[in-house]
Design brief:
It contains 12 helices and no strands. By secondary structure, the protein is mostly helical. It folds into 2 domains: 170 residues, Phosphatidic acid phosphatase type 2/haloperoxidase (Vanadium-containing Chloroperoxidase, domain 1), CATH 1.20.144; 110 residues, no CATH class. α6 runs antiparallel to α7, α8 packs antiparallel against α9 and α9 runs parallel beside α12. The protein starts with a helix and ends with a helix.
Length: 281
C-alpha cells in the first residue's frame, strides 16, 4: 500500500501541483513552524506557552524516533523518484537520511492540534484539519516519505498535543518538572547521535527546560489591549536575531550547534519577556 500510494502521487506530478504542494511543504518546515510558535508565545501568554511546550517536545520525540528506527527514505530505497526542489526555505535535496516518522506531519499536527485544543474555536479546527492533510500529502508528492511515515507523524503529533493539554489543564504546576525530565532524557544521549536535527531539537528542549521556569518567575501580566502586544514582535525578534547572527560567524561544530539552539530558546523567552515587562507591552 505504501508503494502504491507513492506511485499514484508520482504519476500526477506537474508544475502546477509542484507549486501548490511546495507551499504546503514549506508551511510544515521546522523553522517556519518554530517561528510561528515563538510569535504566538509572545502574543498569547499561557496558550502560547502550551504551544511552545508542545512544539519543542514533539520535535525532540521525532528526532529520537528517526534515529532509533533509521528507516531509509523511499527514494533511497528505489521505491519512487524524488522530486528535487531546492530553495532557501524549502528543500527536498538537503535532508537527513531517516524517514520515519515524518517531521513535517508531526510538527504541523502537534502545533495545530495544540492551538485548536487550547483556543476551542470551531473555525481553527476547520482550517487545521485540511492544512495538516495537505502538508502530509505534500511529503508523499515529493517522494521523501512513505504514507506510513506521515500517518505515524500525524498520530504522534496529536498525542503530544493532547498530553500537554492534559498537563496544562490538570497538572499546570508540574509542567516545568515534566519538561526538565524530558530534556534530561534526550540530552543524555545527544553525544551519541551528532546529527544536526538531533542536536537542534536537543538544544531546543534543553533551552525550554532551563529558561521557561526562569521566565515564569518574572510574573508579568500582559496588557489587555492586544494591539499593544504586537510591539513585542520586533522587540523579541531583535533579541533572538542578535543571538542567531552571532552563531552565523562561528564554526558549525556539534557543540556550538547545540548551544546555538539552546541560547535561541533562552533569547526568545527570558530576556524578551524581561523587556516586555520593562516596557509594559
Amino acid at each position: 500500500m505504501d508503494t502504491a500510494i507513492l506511485k499514484f502521487f508520482e504519476g500526477i506530478r506537474c508544475p502546477a501541483l509542484t507549486a501548490v504542494f511546495g507551499i504546503f511543504s514549506t508551511l510544515g518546515e521546522g523553522m517556519v513552524v518554530a517561528g510561528v510558535v515563538i510569535l504566538l508565545y509572545w502574543l498569547w501568554g499561557r496558550a502560547g506557552e502550551q504551544l511552545l511546550f508542545t512544539a519543542v517536545s514533539s520535535a525532540a520525540l521525532n528526532s529520537v524516533l528517526k534515529v532509533a528506527v533509521a528507516r531509509p527514505r523511499p527514494f533511497e530505497a528505489g521505491v519512487v523518484r524524488r522530486l528535487d526542489v531546492d530553495t532557501p526555505i524549502f528543500s527536498t535535496v538537503d535532508l537527513d537520511p531517516h524517514s520515519f516518522p515524518s517531521g513535517h506531519a508531526q510538527t504541523s499536527s502537534a502545533a495545530l492540534t495544540g492551538g485548536s485544543l487550547r483556543l476551542r474555536r470551531w473555525w481553527i479546527w476547520l482550517i487545521s484539519v485540511p492544512l495538516v492533510l495537505a502538508i502530509m500529502c505534500s511529503r508523499l508528492y515529493f517522494g521523501v516519505h512513505y504514507p506510513s511515515d506521515v500517518l505515524a507523524g500525524f498520530a504522534l503529533g496529536v498525542a503530544v498535543a493532547v498530553f500537554w493539554e492534559i498537563v496544562f489543564r490538570y497538572a499546570y504546576k508540574s509542567r516545568h518538572l515534566i519538561m526538565l525530565f524530558l530534556a534530561a532524557a534526550v540530552v543524555i544521549v545527544v553525544p551519541f547521535f551528532p546529527e544536526k536535527d538531533f542536536l537542534m531539537t536537543g538544544g531546543l528542549l534543553a533551552g525550554a527546560a532551563v529558561f521557561l521556569p526562569l521566565t515564569s518567575l518574572l510574573k508579568y501580566d500582559p496588557p489587555k489591549r492586544r494591539l499593544k502586544r504586537l510591539i513585542r514582535i520586533p522587540v523579541g525578534g531583535l533579541i533572538a536575531g542578535m543571538v542567531y547572527l552571532v552563531f552565523v560567524f562561528l564554526p558549525q561544530d556539534a557543540g556550538l550547534y547545540f548551544l546555538k539552539w539552546f541560547l535561541l530558546v533562552g533569547a526568545a523567552t527570558l530576556p524578551s519577556t524581561a523587556l516586555f515587562k520593562l516596557f509594559k507591552i
